[in-house]
Amino acid sequence: MTESVQEGKTPSVLKAAWLIAVVTIVSKLIGFVRDIIIANYYGASLVSDAYYYAYQIPSLSLILLGGVGGPFHSATVAVFSKLIPNLNEKPTDEVNRLYSTFTNATIIFFLILSAVIFLFPKQIMGLIISGGSVEMINLAAQHLKIMTPLLVIGGIVGIYYGILIIYRQFMLPNLSPIIMSLAIIGVVMAVPNDQKGYALAWATTIGAVLQLVIQYPNIRKLGYRLKPCFEFSNNPNFKAICELLFPAVLSSTVGQIHIYVDMFFTSSISEGAWTAIGYANRVFQFPVGILVTAFLVPLFPIFAKLVAENDFDGIRKYFNKGVGVLFFGAIPIIIGILVVGMDAVRLVFEHGVFDENATFMVTEALWFLSVSIIPYVFRDSITRVYYSFNDSATPFVVAFSSIVLKLLLNWVLISKMHFGIGGITLSTSLVTLFNAVVLGILMCKKMKMDYTSLFINLFKMCISGIITFGVCLLCAYEYDKFITLPKIPFEIVKISLIAIVCLGVYVPLNLLFKMEYAKELFNRLSAKFIRK
Which domain range does residue 107 map to? Predict the structure, then answer.
């Protein structure tokens, strides 16, 4: 691919990234409102723990496997994008047969899995949260039965996400999670005296159904029709999907095993601990999810096409640019979490039955989790390159090998060193670092990567970040010493002040160090203001 063609892609990628970022921000904000309401009504308690323990199993399908960036979405993009040369034309009969075969196989598999889970919920939850009380296990089992349909819905939604993104319909896949959040908000507020949390579980199931329903008309409009087609053995494209999908599913399942390991250790810490870790992950995913989703969703189809064209220079260029921007945005997020993380958690969640102790538990988990942002964005980025090579086996093997590391770290940090909640998220951060390093090294067997320039830029950003962190910490200390306001204005003003100071120090320092991403961002923003 020529340089001019590559350059022609950049504006569309950046435009798509901004659009996805805006949509994702809206989705995350509504998700935050959902979490605030759940925290207000259920706090960090046995009921909330039971719901979040149970939700981990159906969320494996709806979020990890079927979500944006999950195996079903990734396999669909990787294979279908190579079969659709013209996005303005209706899909061919070959593509429609593949769509029907893939969807039918997905439905059959998850229906069987759902039946097993529906019949044995107590045994499953008893195995996962063996350290929990009988009351918690029984309550979690009831929640799990209610949410079983999410398993089937998740796989289908993942296929829909992939198809829509191939056709550059980025908004709907990123907006659809809002439907579930709104359903949960509506039902929980309508049933305020839900002592067992059943209304919360039913709201989650209703939201997932609506998430599927809202996407179906667009799939039909594009020309895709689900038919009784079962070409499981004689369709080479379905075979290609399976070769990519199965290791990717196993890899995501391994990630879920990490969560089950955490659940096992967390159940012995304290009541509300798993809820606190869940909220910490949600706070963490708000900025990080926006960054990763905004840049990797539009870049992934480009990676796939560049691999098909053997354009390794193009892959290196887009990878370094995408990951460099993610690094640039990640460091201020880390600074913000470390300096005003507790203030943000207090402002968002400390209402109703969510008390100061719950706030500290969430913040403690969040502090240790924040250090994983840099390896997290690198790992997710390099994994997309593997998928573009139709290689999901390597990420699976690496993730599988880290299970033992996860068990060992949890045992040392929780059982021996008694780190508590912080030990759970610290072990997660260390495992993420391990996966990122190994995947980065193994990629060099497929193609030569330009890590040198990428990490030189990261080093410059880290120096800027350390100086900025010191300045922000000093400002926060002085603010707490001299400013006394009621809780809500105090937290809002403090967070806003630190955000301004952080960007006001971090960006100029990067410009001073001649860091190219800061320079490009500055030039683009300057050009926009000049035009205005």
Answer: 46-246
Structure tokens belonging to residue 287: 């900025």
DSSP 174: H
Span 178-206, pLDDT tens digits: 888 999 999 989 987 888 889 999 999 99
Average pLDDT over residues 306-314: 86
The DSSP element (H or E) to which 514 belongs, if any, is: none
Q: What is the DSSP letter of 45?
A: S
If we measure between CA atoms, which residue out of 303, 330, 331, 42 comes closest to residue 187? 42
- Is residue 417 a part of any domain in this protein? no
Looking at the predicted structure, is the pLDDT value of residue 476 above 90? yes
- The total domain count for the chain is 1
Residue position matching structure tokens 């022609």: 8
What's the half-sphere exposure (Cβ side, CA atoms, 13 Å) at 164?
26
Q: Is 406 exposed, middle or buried (0-12, 13-18, 19+ CB in 10 A)?
A: buried
Query: Is 240 inside any structural domain?
Result: yes
DSSP assignment string, 15-40: HHHHHHHHHHHHHHHHHHHHHHHHHH
Quick count: other Cβ atoms within 10 Å of Cβ 202? 18
- For residue 217, which amino acid is it? P
The reply to whether 66 falls in a domain is: yes
Read off φ and ψ for residue 192, nearest 5 degrees. -70, -20
Q: How far is residue 155's CA from residue 109's CA, in Å, rounded to a whole number?
A: 9
Which pLDDT value is given to residue 12?
54
